[in-house]
């Protein structure tokens, strides 16, 4: 069995991969394959793509997007024989980069990068309810499970980092998985294909990329505010030791 997360080739599905194979418990164990997937919003108008997704046998999908994103681009999960499609009706719009690009006047890559860092400083609070849904679903063995946002890199990246941290994946491996997003073609994401409102398209590069400083910012909040993953799970997500033990027992080999 090869190590590391495996991309799933589904044509228009940007940034979809299986977390199986990643190390856990400091490298003593690994995640089982075919249990947890992370992704961008899938193509919504490709029947062949839908059939391929259906072949994953998904039981649960957790949508991390806000209401406006879900209304503009409805997720196609109800067509994929998935039993449960879950989202927070009042999910924060933080992370909706299409809206941010339309609303704010960014005049340099540095300003865009600072905006992205500010998002990551807040994700542990703004999306706590959605992250808790992922952990509770896994504790109840509602797998195979897939979670996604729009680009599958920011909210999805932080959700993945929290899950892997809880499973004892070394942070270097968590960062490596996060940066795999940069190997995918972000222009497949609908909003990224729109012409930039700025003459210089490179202004938006930091918004399309996964950069180490972004995830490191989220880890800093995790450590400084909560004393690590255990404090965050218990105090913010209400995920206790028993639930976490069930997650580990179900996902690790």
UniProtKB/TrEMBL annotation:
List the Gene3D superfamilies: Protein tyrosine phosphatase superfamily (3.90.190.10)
Can the keyword Hydrolase be found in this entry's annotation? Answer: yes
Citing just one GO molecular function, the answer is: protein tyrosine phosphatase activity
Does this entry carry the keyword Hydrolase? yes
**EC number(s) of the enzyme?**
3.1.3.48
Q: What SUPFAM superfamilies does the record tag this protein with?
A: (Phosphotyrosine protein) phosphatases II
Q: What Pfam families does the annotation carry?
A: Y_phosphatase3
Q: Which residues form the Tyrosine specific protein phosphatases domain?
A: 129-164
Tell me which UniProt keywords the record has, alphabetically. Hydrolase
The record's comment on protein family reads:
Belongs to the protein-tyrosine phosphatase family.
Specify the protein name: Tyrosine-protein phosphatase
């Amino acid at each position: 069995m090869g190590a590391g997360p495996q991309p799933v080739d589904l044509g228009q599905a940007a940034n979809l991969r299986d977390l199986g194979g990643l190390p856990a418990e400091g490298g003593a164990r690994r995640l089982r394959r075919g249990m947890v997937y992370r992704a961008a919003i899938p193509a919504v108008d490709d029947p062949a793509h839908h059939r391929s997704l259906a072949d994953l046998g998904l039981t649960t999908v957790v949508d991390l997007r806000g209401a406006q994103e879900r209304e503009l681009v409805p997720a196609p999960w109800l067509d994929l024989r998935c039993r449960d499609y879950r989202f927070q009706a009042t999910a924060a719009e933080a992370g909706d980069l299409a809206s941010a690009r339309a609303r704010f006047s960014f005049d340099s890559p540095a300003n865009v990068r600072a905006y992205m860092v500010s998002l990551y400083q807040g994700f542990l609070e703004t999306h706590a309810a959605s992250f808790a849904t992922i952990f509770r679903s896994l504790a109840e063995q509602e797998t195979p499970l897939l979670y996604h946002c729009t680009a599958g890199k920011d909210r999805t990246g932080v959700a993945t980092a929290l899950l892997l941290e809880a499973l004892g994946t070394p942070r270097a491996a968590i960062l490596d998985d996060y940066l795999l997003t940069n190997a995918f073609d972000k222009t497949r994401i609908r909003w990224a294909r729109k012409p930039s409102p700025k003459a210089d398209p490179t202004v938006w590069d930091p918004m399309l990329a996964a950069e180490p400083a972004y995830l490191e910012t989220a880890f800093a909040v995790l450590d400084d505010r909560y004393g690590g993953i255990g404090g965050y799970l218990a105090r913010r997500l209400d995920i206790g030791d028993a639930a976490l033990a069930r997650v580990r027992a179900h996902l690790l080999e």
